[in-house]
Predict the structure.
Amino acid sequence: MSDFRPDGMITERDYTGKTLEEATKEATKRGFVVRIVETNGNSVMLDMSVKGDRINFRVNGGLVTAAFGG
């Protein structure tokens, strides 16, 4: 069973500052699919799809610096 917040919101502070492994584990536990959109300042080529069960991470030095839905 996933551990979704009652309001279904993605809260960036739940993920920022964590290692990518820790943040991915937390997101997966909550029912999200993880996508890396930026690594060490380099953007990753992405498609334009938007999914309600996906969380996007920006990662720098192995730590999540931003997290947002889509």
